[in-house]
Fold each of these.
Amino acid sequence: RISRLVLPDRTGKSPEELYDIDPTPIGSGAYGTVRTVTRKANGRHLVMKTMDKESLPDVDRLLNEIRIQMDLDHPHVCKIFDTFEDDMKIYIVLESCKGGELLDFISSKSTFTELDAFIVMRQVMMAVRYIHGKGIAHRDIK
């Protein structure tokens, strides 16, 4: 049995108490799944990452990244709204970032003009400038 990791839990409740959770995953990876959720209080559509603690290679690093990201508030940085934890899983509720990864977005376009590149790169640079201003280096820009 895995113990609690002292994840910042600002609600004191379970995900099911605050969110309607779509049972069908919209994504999955080596460490867990992503599902669409709807906040019961206001109907806001978000996503929830659910990760098995046993499959995480570096839990301390993940917790540090969550704590850092929870303090960020910028239009081009994915916002974390809630975190939850039980004995076996970590749950992160965050803004739904439509469009997927940047490379996939660019590859899906039949043409990608200089203006398109300018718009995308300007948004990326605004986000990087914001996080650098907070003393954070991003090592996984997608």
Amino acid sequence: MTQGRSTRLRPPAFILIALLAAPVVSRAEPTIHPSLAGRFRLTTFASGLNFPSSMQQLADGSLLVGTSDPASGGSIYNSTGSLLRFTDTNRDGVADGPGQVVATGLTGTVTSVRQAGELLFVTSSRPGQEKITVMRMGSSPGDSLTALGTIDFAFPSNTLHTTYALAVRESSTTPGSFQLFFNVGSRTNADRTTTPVPVSGLIDADLNGDSIYRVTVTDSGSGAPSFSAPEQIATGLRNAAGIAFDPLTGDLFFQDNGIDGLSNSNEPHSADELNRIAVGDIGGAIEDFGFPDDFVPYRTGGQGGSDDSLLVAFQPIPDPSNGLEAEGANEIAFAPDTFRSILGHGVFIGFHGRFNGAPSGVDAENPLVFYDLASDSYIHFIEGNQDGLGHLDGLLATGDRLYLSDLSTIGPVTFGGAGQGAIYVLTAIIPEPSSVALTALGLAGLFGLAARRSRRSRLG
């Protein structure tokens, strides 16, 4: 196993220790970019957790968190999944306690948790056991969940990227139903996937790799819901491990991990991207995003193509040759409503950084990035290269908060990483009406760290 960049969690040797949810303990939070530190507050919501990942807000405002409890040795890859519910009754940004277990015994390596009505969908990416578990919520948020069935993936052996991301929205064509979106990754680092991926259980189909699919979910209120046949939405995606809908426009946004270095695993071959499908084009012709032949070279960029679906390719900033890096994009989330008066409308992206943490313990590739749609620029909102910052893989935006989950604050997701996870809460310090909003100045002018969109170049 190399210490190269991450494109999501990859399977190493299976070694683990079992640790249950631990109490909240005081710890130093990562620091916010100096230009923004006076406008935002970051607090430790919970800590001492086993690889916390994706999160979902429940009806009462409590937080549901997917965790992976290791068997023995400390690895996320040989684990069982649990769902923990946290409350914050006084709204101080610190959880009231260690978390209530509302589901356990799930397949481990939990990577996505999403709710649609009374249904909850949980993606487990444990190697060889990848699945989406469908559960029913109880009558109150603190009730235990009822498992209804699974969607089981049968990825070929040695598949590099499996399935990690979920997104849901109400169906625009079938009243009372929901659309569930999920990704199917690429089998290898730099080649088109040609082997289909069978799925069984609640869905029976053969899926294409390098893709995003959707299904329509119809729930009668009891028993397992029904699922439509999977419909491919996008292709040419190496690993779209973060998917979200723009709350203002309904457009579908997703990241894609760039190709790892072909000769040096620590130096990417192509840049990570943020892409978009306009709301009116979702479900039309299958959108092709070019992997493996059409990409933006890392550091050098390139002029080629004119695909407006590519919003931005993430290069080192301010100087691509030696600037601050961001590698291994994971979950994405749109800025909460209360952030817009400061930042404008845009997307947060969590970057995993090096797969198992940096050998020095400080990872220079794992920031939280904010991309501003209006100025087409981005900033490292929380810069990488900080002690105690591991992998901000999980993001959840609510009306006035951005929750961030760090899989392992010390870096490792195998040896020694269990019980080292944390969740942070980011809130805005609302400026006085007379204050000049950052949006008026523009991110590009204020920070000097802007990176305009980089067009793809084509091989051959």
Amino acid sequence: MKVIFIHGLGQKKESWNSVCDNLALEDVELVDLIQVQNRGQVDYKNLYAEVKAICQNTDEKVNIVGISLGGLLALNYAIDFSDKVNSLVLINSQFKMPKILLSIQNIIFRFIPKRKFETMGFAKENFINIANSIKELDFTDRLKDIQCKVLVINGDKDTVNRKASRELSRLIPNSELVILNQSGHEANIDNPVELAKIINNFYHELL
């Protein structure tokens, strides 16, 4: 069973390492969104093209795990190619972007020195480009088209995404919501062992 992991904005593919170390999986691929900027300017469209290419580089149905921005990309792919996705795990993810919150976030980004972004993967201008390019995304009317089994995970301290997580589990036909204890927005870093346990249980039920 192939499982593809997509990291969030401000993370790197290595952000999944502690989770994967505790997973009972053999065929795992960690998507590296950061390297997309080596080919030029980055926005949501570029990132989605990267995810699409990776997911379609196999003849079997894929299982996708995405956190935050990674969850948004995973959700997008599952909607566009519902017949090619076996399962979906969405962690602290949105499906209709909060425009006001993103606008405030971008204002903050503009005042942060470029050097502060070095440890977060993307260059400053690409952080701003990505945030601007996702403002209009709204998958509300297409959630019903998702055919695979879906696990929605929300960190107990990530209240910003609490409502979206509940709505995702309500609007996606074959889905369930699990609250991850002792975890904020970066669940794969905050509580990787417990997160891995939840994911393991989900895949065990799929088999």
Amino acid sequence: MSMVNNAHAGSSLVLLNLIDRVLIRRGKPVARSELLEILRPDLLPKSENGAKRFEWNLDFWLEEGLWPQDGLGQISAPAGATEQNIAHRVLALLVDNLNSQSEQEILDGTRSEPFFRAMTCLLAQRRYVFMGGGTVSVSNVAEAVNSWLSGRGMNESNERSTFLAYGEFLGFLEPFDKGYIVDPTLAIEPYLGKL
């Protein structure tokens, strides 16, 4: 399910960063079971949803290909991974994954595709850039996106805040006033030297 839906796998930026940091600092492959024991707090198993949330997020990013996992369940950080380049690595991975999909799969997909559909809608609207004078926030992001995405819009009850958090994390949004402005500078910065 969608990474921007806070009830589904892949939605926790905290867990994403935490897992990545542990893998990088270990510097060697870590058994899946060990990673689960190290990072899953003792209180989580007491709730049915909490016990699964960590594994759901880990599995989501393993399936996307963020961290290599061997047949024995050993998970490692990819070559060149640093704590500072995680946002760029995630964005590059998601874009590469999208490039391998058909147009219809991008329109109908339910993993990272909803994020990119929604962000594309924001990027197309001048009113949310610095010179446009408007900001996007939890209170208006669904309206800003859904007016452009008939039938494929944002779930207003549990996607707004996670979408905005991912937008900032991946470098498409900048905090401004009581919301965000659309500014993809940080998202494209790693590619500017290659142009």
